[in-house]
Amino acid sequence: MKYKALYIGNELSFVEKLKEKNTLFGIQITDQPFDALKLAEEINLVFYESTDTEDDYLLIKSLKASLAESKIVIFAISKNPDNQELIKSGAHDVFTIESNVDNIFKRFEFINQYYDQLTQNTNDLLPGFKLPIWKRLFDIAFSSVILLFLLPIFIVIAILIRLESKGKVYYTSPRIGSGYKVFGFYKFRSMYTGADKKVDSLMKNNQYTASKAETSQKYEALDPNAPVLISDDGFVSETKVKNLKSVKRENAFFKVANDPRITKIGRILRNTSVDELPQLINVLKGDMSIVGNRPLPLYEAELLTTDQWAKRFLAPAGMTGLWQVTKRGGSNVMSADDRKQLDIEYAENYSFWYDIKLLLKTIPAMLQHENV
Questions:
Q1: DSSP one-letter code for 21
Q2: Across the strands, what pairs with 317?
């Protein structure tokens, strides 16, 4: 076993579930909380079965103070998973006996890996996002004026879309914007109806995908002394699973050249970025801004919800931004890392004049020559 855990409590059925569902832990049981101090040099994780009383809070505080030097993770098992008093007392997380065991151990691995950062940098948490007043006023004025001028063009585009293919003339999809806010994102429909269902089959042509050498899943010999997991294809090393997840995270963005899902009218709309114009309504509603980081589909946002990339969500979500006017057209294909770094750069540096500069650069960038 790679790790050792101590379960403090009497819920034996839950302990059996923990034992059955993992290959990483050996688990001991006790009803004496301070047995954790005796075993501090041997264990990596403590499960504390709480009754959510003051006594429990005091005990967890004491255990946290005593075990901190040994970097032992403490999970509270409670009937109330939202009990913040347990967190305040020192538990690293709270679970119920119904919690998914795989999620519990994944959470342990994360906290164990970043124990020092999570413990020592409690004052370095990312601040909440609040849109500056100057930016909101600019968004309202700009989007209102442009929408009035574009209304006749919107009507013509709607007719052309409807004549070419069946379905709505606009497309709404859930997107993650500033501060992880979910909202309905408007675009002129540029694809045939049901295009979302074809994403998985087209993923192999993704421009952001790492090389086949990086994602190869060829057979490899297993190390008998290393942790082994079970996959749909049989046994696989834990290291390989982590590497594959890392590659998947690097390829969070999805983009395909010569996408067969796009209609003829849709291709014209996309190549001129006219399909994006209904987002002016999102801007007017306050869902997003004129200039900012691109709001992401849910699956992309989930892959970018990490300590390394979370900061890109603490900036205005926008119609255009830094990455849209960088390396566009020609042979300049932007990597996923490049795009994420540009998003973070904008989050750290945006200002009124910076936004104006990016807005002026957007006009030539709209007339791109990429067939995407």
A1: T
A2: 293
Q: What is the C-alpha to C-alpha distance for residues 321 and 291, in angstroms, rounded to an integer?
A: 5
Q: What is the pLDDT of residues 109-152, one digit of tens each?
A: 888 888 877 766 544 444 567 889 999 999 999 999 999 999 99
Query: Residue for token digits 């990490």?
Result: 306
Cα separation, 320 vs 57, in Å, equals 49
At residue 372, the pLDDT reads 45
| Res 271: pLDDT | 83
| Cβ(167)–Cβ(194) below 8 Å | no
pLDDT digits (tens, 9 = 90+) for 238-281: 565 555 555 444 455 455 556 667 888 888 988 888 888 999 99
| pTM confidence score | 0.51
Q: Strand ranges (DSSP E) for 24-78?
A: 25-30, 45-49, 73-77
| Token pair listed for 108 | 């342990």
Cα angle: 304, vertex 306, 309; to 5 degrees: 65
End-to-end CA gap in the chain:
49
CA dist 124 to 132, 201, 264, Å?
22, 41, 49
Q: Is 3 helix (H, G, I), strand (E, B) or coil?
A: strand
Max distance between CA atoms of the chain, in angstroms, equals: 77
What is the spatial distance between Cα 334 and Cα 317, in angstroms, rounded to a whole number?
20
Tokens describing residue 98: 């119904």
3-state SS record for 145-180: HHHHHHHHHHHHHHHHHHHHCCCCCEEEEEEECHHH
| Domains, the chain, with CATH or none | 3-124 (3.40.50.2300), 136-205+252-366 (no CATH), 212-250 (no CATH)
Kindly state the tokens that stand for 166.
């069946």
**How is residue 339 written in tokens?**
């795009």
Residues 6 or more apart whose CB falls under 8 angstroms from that of 88 comprise 57
